[in-house]
């Protein structure tokens, strides 16, 4: 188990307040051992939630399984099978019984599970109208504070 705690801040802008396709968070888990050998330990992705607020997500990760020779090479010399275009993982879709499209991210690959990544998200959704109103409100509060301090 490893703990990585680094805050990331993203701002995603959309034309409408209801997005049909929410963006994905793509993950690539890497490791470096004590001899400096690099490996890709797994890939995973999760779709951003539609509702604002605090979310705890668990992302299942997996890695492509290679031949016996490539696994031995990876163990002794480092290196591993890599996916060159991560964005392609979220483009392969199928239609379920209800007619909704879902992602098949391992289609055509022989893979093995490689663990889970826990992601904590604080999400805030804001449309253009409410953003303008909030800006005006903040500016008015600043002006009121300036007037108060001048008295």
Features:
22% helix; two-stranded antiparallel ribbon; alpha+beta; 151 residues; elongated
Radius of gyration, Cα only, in angstroms? 22 Å
Shape: elongated
Per DSSP E runs of 2 or more residues, the count of β-strands stands at 6
Q: Strand order within the widest sheet?
A: 1-2
The biggest beta sheet, please? Answer: 2 strands, antiparallel
Structural class: alpha+beta
**In percent terms, what proportion of residues is strand?**
25-35%
Average pLDDT figure: 77
Question: What is the helical fraction, as a range of percent?
Answer: 10-25%
Assembly category = single chain
Number of helices: 2
In sequence order, what are the helices and strands, one letter per element? Answer: EEEHEEEH
Show unreliable segments.
none
CA-to-CA gap between the ends? Answer: 58 Å
Task: Give an overview in words.
There is one protein chain. Helices cover 22% and strands 33% of the residues. It has 151 residues and is an alpha+beta fold. The chain has a domain at 24-124. The strands form three sheets. Strands 1-2 form a two-stranded antiparallel sheet. It is elongated, with a radius of gyration of 22 Å. The chain starts with 23 loop residues before the first strand and ends with a helix. The model has no long low-confidence stretch (mean pLDDT 77).
Gist?
The protein is α+β, with helices and mostly antiparallel strands and 151 residues long. It has helices at residues 68-77, 128-150, and strands at residues 24-32, 38-47, 53-64, 93-95, 101-103, 111-123.
């Amino acid at each position: 188990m490893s703990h990585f705690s680094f805050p990331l801040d993203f701002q995603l802008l959309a034309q409408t307040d209801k997005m049909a396709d929410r963006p994905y968070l793509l993950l690539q888990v890497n490791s470096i051992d004590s001899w400096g050998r690099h490996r890709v330990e797994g890939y995973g992705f999760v779709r951003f939630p539609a509702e604002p607020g605090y979310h705890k997500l668990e992302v299942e990760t997996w890695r492509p399984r290679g031949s016996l020779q490539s696994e031995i090479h990876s163990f002794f010399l480092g290196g591993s099978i890599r996916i060159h275009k991560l964005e392609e993982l979220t483009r392969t879709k199928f239609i379920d019984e209800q007619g909704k499209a879902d992602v098949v991210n391992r289609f055509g690959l022989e893979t093995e599970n490689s663990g889970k990544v826990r992601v904590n998200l604080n999400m805030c959704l804001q449309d253009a109208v409410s953003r303008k109103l909030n800006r005006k409100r903040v500016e008015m509060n600043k002006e009121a504070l300036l007037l108060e301090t001048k008295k």
